[in-house]
């Protein structure tokens, strides 16, 4: 008989590795209506008359939360999957990313999305294959236009059908170093299974350091039901995508942020984009003002207490699993317990996004995290988390070195020049300093210009959303 975690430990780990299960009616194409009272009373009457066979204690049912986190089946199979998940987490296996990036309204908007993800019009050397749910590969713009029009016609239907978004776009991604072809194969297999009753297109992008697949799905399936992915759906998509990657020989994991000691609160994409370009997003400014306001009032930040409570609950769940795995007769389970104990001991101190994001922007490293290339770079005075900041840091270092050389050469030459009655810095070094200063100012102007454009786009987007809210839903 294989080793199994107890039901209590399995439930506690399910609370760590899965978000609380939310039950919503009508999101999978059903009517969303509850059962009639008459049917409920009849079912209760039949249940009181008919006796069920006694279930042995060894086959105790899994809780809904445990099924949500580790899948259904027997207690033993769910326990094996839970142990495998903890093992991957303790070894810090790369995490998959599945994110909804937008919605397209109308055939023209859908065609624009097809054009973007296929890189149509960027030249034959940059255009990528556009895979469809029908097994075709599109390269021609006319074929993409026909498909986009088909999606729009199916979405709009007759006049009685409300006009909604025609498609929804997602990104499936893995960290740098992942084999792009195997990632593409895993993403396509994921789409074939999870979107089996829908039309979709997919394209692999390798223009960044991490390969990723753009997946665009028609909002209505072949039966006319609309696509409403929620938190539970995205959690399931991450799990399935990670499974497909492992089937392709790529180690991948899909765990919530809190299981890794990170604040699970979502960070807006716009804020991350502004930080990547060296700017300070508005959300960071407001958080800093809030922190200063609480500090002046002598009030402890309640966010810290909440984060500490969450991490304490995670640690208790890990400790419970470690205790049971350490008592397992299987040496492999005991080795996983040791690895999990090291992982739990290395969890970073509770830290909110309002603290972590600016710290990462500055390039500071959590002292509890093992030093690596980033920490080594920080000790040398160069931040590697932001390429623009790194370039400016290097430029400042070169300026300082140039000034130091100028001072040294000026000092050495001053003794000779003083004999002649003159003392000046060599002209060549003055040119070096002036050029370095000019380059740094140009970098700063470029950064300010980029940040201004991003802020302006964000402002226009908010104004458009407010205007749509005042006008009411379009028919």
Can you walk through the features of this model?
By secondary structure, the protein is an alpha+beta fold. Helices cover 56% and strands 7% of the residues. Strand 2 and strand 3 (137-138) form a beta hairpin. The termini are far apart.
How do the helices and strands line up, and which of them pair or pack?
Layout: H1 7-17, H2 37-49, H3 64-70, H4 75-90, E1 97-104, H5 107-118, E2 130-132, E3 137-138, H6 141-156, E4 167-173, H7 180-194, E5 200-205, E6 212-218, H8 231-247, H9 269-276, H10 282-297, H11 302-326, H12 331-345, H13 353-362, H14 373-379, H15 387-420, H16 427-471
Antiparallel strand pairs: 1-4, 2-3, 2-5, 4-6, 5-6
User: How many separate helices?
Assistant: 16
Spatial extent as radius of gyration: 29 Å
Quote the beta fraction: 5-15%
Strand arrangement in the largest pleated sheet: 1-4-6-5-2-3
What CATH architecture of the largest domain do you see? 2-Layer Sandwich
Q: Return the CATH topology of the largest domain.
A: BirA Bifunctional Protein, domain 2
**Unreliable parts:** 23-37, 54-58, 367-392, 412-425, 469-475
Total number of strands: 6
**Overall mean confidence score, pLDDT:** 76
Tally of separate domains:
3
CATH class of the largest domain: Alpha Beta
Q: Element order, helices and strands?
A: HHHHEHEEHEHEEHHHHHHHHH
Q: State the secondary-structure class.
A: alpha+beta
Largest sheet: 6 strands, antiparallel
Cα(first) to Cα(last) distance is 61 Å
What best-fitting shape do the alpha-carbon axes yield?
Answer: globular
Question: Helix amount, in percent?
Answer: 55-70%
């Amino acid at each position: 008989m294989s080793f199994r975690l107890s039901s209590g430990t399995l439930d506690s780990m399910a609370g760590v590795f899965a978000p609380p299960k939310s039950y919503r009616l009508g999101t999978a194409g059903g009517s969303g209506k509850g059962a009639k009272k008459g049917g409920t009373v009849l079912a209760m009457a039949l249940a009181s008359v008919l006796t069920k066979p006694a279930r042995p204690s060894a086959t105790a049912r899994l809780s809904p939360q445990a099924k949500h986190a580790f899948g259904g089946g027997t207690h033993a199979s769910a326990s094996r999957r839970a142990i495998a998940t903890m093992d991957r987490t303790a070894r810090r296996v790369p995490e998959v990313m599945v994110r909804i990036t937008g919605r397209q309204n109308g055939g023209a908007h859908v065609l624009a999305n097809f054009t973007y993800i296929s890189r149509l019009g960027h030249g034959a050397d940059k255009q990528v294959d556009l895979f469809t749910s029908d097994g075709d590969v599109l390269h021609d713009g006319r074929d993409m236009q026909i498909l986009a029009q088909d999606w729009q016609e199916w979405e709009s239907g007759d006049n009685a059908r409300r006009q909604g978004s025609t498609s929804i776009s997602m990104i499936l991604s893995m960290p740098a170093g992942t084999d792009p072809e195997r990632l593409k194969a895993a993403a396509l297999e994921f789409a074939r299974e999870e979107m089996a009753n829908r039309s979709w297109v997919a394209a692999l992008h390798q223009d960044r350091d991490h390969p990723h697949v753009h997946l665009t799905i028609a909002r209505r399936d072949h039966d006319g039901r609309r696509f409403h992915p929620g938190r539970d759906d995205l959690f399931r998509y991450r799990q399935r995508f990670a499974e497909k990657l492992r089937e392709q020989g790529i180690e991948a994991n899909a765990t919530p942020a809190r299981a890794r000691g990170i604040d699970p609160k979502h960070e807006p994409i716009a804020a991350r984009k502004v930080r990547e370009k060296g700017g300070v997003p508005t959300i960071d400014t407001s958080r800093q003002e809030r922190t200063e306001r609480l500090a002046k009032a002598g009030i402890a930040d309640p966010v810290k207490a909440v984060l500490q409570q969450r991490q304490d609950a995670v640690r208790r769940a890990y400790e419970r699993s470690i205790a049971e795995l350490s008592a397992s007769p299987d040496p492999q389970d005991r080795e996983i317990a040791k690895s999990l104990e090291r992982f739990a001991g290395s969890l970073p101190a509770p830290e909110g996004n309002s603290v972590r994001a600016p710290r990462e922007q500055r390039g500071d490293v959590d002292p509890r995290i093992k030093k690596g290339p980033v920490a080594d770079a920080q000790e040398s005075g160069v931040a590697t988390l932001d390429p623009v900041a790194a370039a400016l840091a290097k430029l400042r270092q070169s300026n300082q070195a140039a000034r130091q050389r100028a001072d040294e050469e000026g000092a050495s030459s001053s003794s000779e020049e003083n004999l002649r009655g003159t003392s000046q810095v060599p002209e060549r070094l003055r040119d070096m300093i002036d050029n370095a200063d000019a380059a740094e100012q140009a970098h700063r102007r470029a950064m300010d210009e980029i940040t201004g454009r991003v802020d302006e786009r964000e402002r226009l987007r908010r104004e458009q959303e407010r205007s749509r809210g005042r006008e009411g839903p379009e028919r």
